[in-house]
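Researcher: Let's walk through a ligand-bound prediction step by step. First, I give you the protein sequence. Second, the SMILES string for NAP. Third, you return the three-dimensional complex as structure tokens. Ready?
Model: Ready.
Researcher: Here are steps one and two:
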Amino acid sequence: MPHPYVLLSAAVSLDGFLDDTGPERLLLSGPEDFDRVDEVRAGSDAILVGAGTLRTDNPRLLVYSAERRAARVAAGLPEYPLKVTVSASGDLDPDAQFWRTGGAKALYTTDKGAQRLRGLLPADVEVIALGPDVQWRAVLAHLGDVKGVRRLMVEGGGQVHTQLLRQGLADELQLVVAPLFVGQADAPRMFGPGAYPPGRMRLLETRPVGDVVLMRYVPAAPGTGALASAADRRWLEAACDLAAQCPPSRTAFSVGAVIVAADGTELARAHSRESGDPVVHAEEAALAKLDPADPRLPGATVYSSLEPCARRASRPAPCARLIVGAGVRRVVTAWREPDTFVRSADGSAVLAAEGVEVVVLPEYGDRAKAPNAHLLPPSGRVADRG
Ligand SMILES: NC(=O)c1ccc[n+]([C@@H]2O[C@H](COP(=O)([O-])OP(=O)(O)OC[C@H]3O[C@@H](n4cnc5c(N)ncnc54)[C@H](OP(=O)(O)O)[C@@H]3O)[C@@H](O)[C@H]2O)c1
Ligand SMILES: [Zn+2]
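Model: Step three, the predicted complex:
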């Protein structure tokens, strides 16, 4: 299983602080927003906070609504999401509420941290020692592969949010701005100084919740320069895997496509020549599985291993036109179409001319090309345009 979907959740003051310097936790959200957070928790498989937040806030991190807990149980889930914390030092209070409330708990720590805590934590807490240091990728891989976590809600604090965002591991940021000031220079900030992924984040939603405002963003991944998130990469990988499932052809490319809603829900997937149709394209087949009036389409992203086609002989409309017609505003692809079958088939230009954002992640090009090797020049180098 891939890494979980990582959702960073936090509330800040108008001057950008997570807390004040006093001993009590500063309440930034109002009752309506605490209820919204409760709902997000109930929809998550696991909730993670850093050891710093455990030490300062002593949080319980429960789902408080009995109906939401009952709905989880009815859906075959544990009553409470898994609670997760991360500490290098192992400097944790064994009597903290975190360990003593809710359902399953896991601690990711160093070998030294595990040694320090040996025999101190309640017996049902799983302590996972990851060696001399704790790497976030190892934590996420373990949560996904071993614990079966698909949706991880990260509730701070600043250090943890900063690391996940900088390492390109956050899929979504849910930030609430509260109408008050902290006004202390040494209060903890949401994000510390340093290098962040370049580019603007993509705004998914803004919503007033009581007297606070919720903003939901998709962070940009580092190094791409494009607005691609960790989830974008995983979906594009899935599209490349689908391409490998196509019935072989000497006259057409093998392509995979996945359509994903703004909230990360998969809407449809398909590959070239599926269901015995000898000419159907992946994007075309995936779109055909959806109601054209589906309200999620304008916020959706089409992931396609190959750039959507701009011209084709076998159908009246090429995939780029079908995507525009469906109202989809974003396409992520691994490989620009070579001139093998059509000259200068610039699907990206067709999409861009209609205002559709096209993100190319060339680092997945080899995976997209692999099932098409027999169609490409033997050197493996294709006369790629641009
Ligand atoms: N407003 C909000 O939404 C909100 C939410 C949460 C927290 N907060 C506030 O945030 C403040 C705490 O934030 P913080 O930045 O000090 O702490 P934090 O991010 O909660 O935790 C930092 C600690 O986590 C552990 N850690 C982080 N990354 C690690 C890694 N890669 N490997 C190993 N351990 C790692 C370390 O623990 P060890 O030191 O044990 O090694 C580190 O000191 C509090 O004031 C709290 O009230 C506010
Ligand atoms: Zn096509």
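Researcher: And what stands out?
Model: The domain at 230-375 is CATH 3.40.140.10 (Cytidine Deaminase; domain 2). The mean pLDDT is 90.
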